[in-house]
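One record is given unchanged without comment:
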Amino acid sequence: MRSRQIYKHSERHFVHRTGWLRAAVLGANDGIISVSSLMVGIAAAEASQSHLAIAGITGLVAGAMSMAAGEYVSVSSQADLEKADLAREGKELIETPDAELDELTQIYVDRGVESSLAREVSVQMMKKDALGVHAREELGISEITTARPLQAAIASAVAFSIGAVFPVAAAFIIPMSSFVPVSSGLCILLLGALGAFAAKTGGASPVRPAVRVMFWGAVAMGFSAVIGHIMGVVVS
């Protein structure tokens, strides 16, 4: 008798990281781009180094609070909608269970399951967790996609602060005479590294996301430098 080898097939999925990864990447990108653009604009207006540092620190604190509040409010709105939909679905399961069974059966039929088998699967699934299966199949709500406001708010605020630390630190290190080109270049490279890291963490190719975020970061800093220079000339 020949012995059979059993191979274990393990798969790595990244969709469970969607919630916190989106908030963290958005926060870090915004921290780098907004604070560095702010500081580049101020430096282009020929402000002093102390004023530049104050502006950077203020931008970091205000931006982190804004990101946290914005994420919490927006994700809370999503959570409220999910709760309302689940409550409505639970009521329909109590009042019209046969109609809900037909609806679930039709969902599986539309996905390619034979009618009688789809009916049998629907009956068994609803016996175990009727609301859970309708939430997943009908509403698209699952543990992976469920909105988590506090998690998103904290991730955004922390990530923004981490991203903004780099341009703020540059104000204490880079001389004012070369601050605009040196700080801009370093922040653009940092954006590229962050874009590549986020793509890699999500299981995607890192090249296109890195180039994309570097391009838009360069555009933002370029506009800020031009406006800062114009305003500096006008004021002086």
Remarks:
- Helices lie at 18-44, 49-95, 97-110, 115-139, 149-173, 179-201, 207-235.
